Amino acid sequence: MPSNAGPDQNLESEDPATCDNDSAAPPSRAGSSHNFEGLIGQTRAEGNSLSGIDSHGVDRLYSTVVTFDPHPQEFFTGQPKKLLTPLAEKVELLEAMGVEQLVLLPFDRELATLTAIEFVEEILVRQLKACRISVGVDFRFGRGRAGTAVDLQSIASGYGVDVALVPLHNCGTVRISSSAIRLCLAEGDLTRVNQLLGRPYSLVGTVVGGQRLGRTIGFPTANIELPPEKFLPRFGVYAVRVSVKHGGEKMKDQSSSYQRENPKSLIPGIASNLFFVNGVMNVGCRPTVDGLQPTVEVHLLDWSGDLYGKTLSASLVEFLRPEQKFASVDALKTQIQADCDVARSVLAAKV
Q1: Residues 203, 218, 350, 305, CA torsion sign
Q2: Where are the domains of the chain?
Q3: How many C-alpha atoms does 220 have within 13 Å on its Cβ side?
Q4: Which has the higher per-residue pLDDT, 48 or 212?
Q5: What pLDDT was estimated at residue 58?
Q6: Section 104-110 average pLDDT
Q7: Is residue 281 within 8 Å of 339, Cβ to Cβ?
């Protein structure tokens, strides 16, 4: 959404994007009004902007994404909502797509009671100084969600603001939406998840101390502390690629699974300084050792080093098996070795 406002505000709806049947090629879109829950890969900032004064005193447009914080559903129900892309991930992905501003509109009682007309006049025109806006055709706004995308188009036109309506898109027979992505994640269907997203689903967090059981059985793991609002996929074991920033945190151990050349981006078609180390990840409560709370642990294949305090991003490539309880730690160790062997084969085939 083009605008003259400075970079500090966010808006709602499930985020439709495209997938060209079996390929993932989401459409172009600039700043827009949405709750970008399932942030789609390969989106480009072209059509929506806010206006403002740059560092040289020149009036210009800024490609901007506007979204609500907290999620409206969380505000009305009082229940925390698990997110596909917590704020830190959202910022990084949008920045890689070329978006210049992320506007977080505080969703409170005052905002919730604005009528559709008041929302356009007060928020979009007066405060954000929007010049061009794009929203999905199913976008709703204003008190009681009374305003439609067509209403937005009509009201905004009175202020000289162009509104583009983005059509709904399907991947095969499935409409692309955060709800569809959540359902596939809950089923462990990563092929469909990554098609719908246009990028791998990732778990991003900080490495913290754990029980160190993995180290005692020959499979040291990094325990990743995720944002509490992160939506977890089906409990079980995954083949993953763990990203490492080139020139940032140094993972010097050279190994066959450490891809030091031709780095891959989290977003197809966008250059990145990320390197990847292949790994096996467990998401779940670790029933064999009587775990109670869900944890996320990753074992890096053919790699060793100190990761404590560092931020890792694990891209989920394939679901290997459901979580299960083993009769003994030795049985668990045998299965982990088998998981590592399978993960190597899977990841080698998907380079």
Answers
A1: positive
A2: 1-199, 201-349
A3: 13
A4: 212
A5: 52
A6: 92
A7: no
For the segment 133-166, what is each residue's pLDDT rounded down to a tens digit?
Answer: 999 999 999 999 999 999 999 999 999 999 999 9
Q: What token pair was written down for 72?
A: 């409206």
| Whole-prediction pTM | 0.75
CA-closest candidate to residue 282, choices 322, 242, 330, 328: 322
The correct CATH number of 1-199 out of 3.30.230.10, 3.40.50.620, 3.30.499.10, 3.40.630.30 is 3.40.50.620
DSSP β-bridge partners for residue 134: 32, 164
Q: CA-CA distance, 304 to 302, in Å (whole number)?
A: 7
Q: Which residue has the tokens 């990743």?
A: 224
What span, in angstroms and rounded, lies between the C-alpha atoms of 297 and 283? 7
Most confident of 7-16, 24-33, 196-205, 207-216: 196-205
Domain 201-349 in CATH 2.40.30.30? The answer is: yes
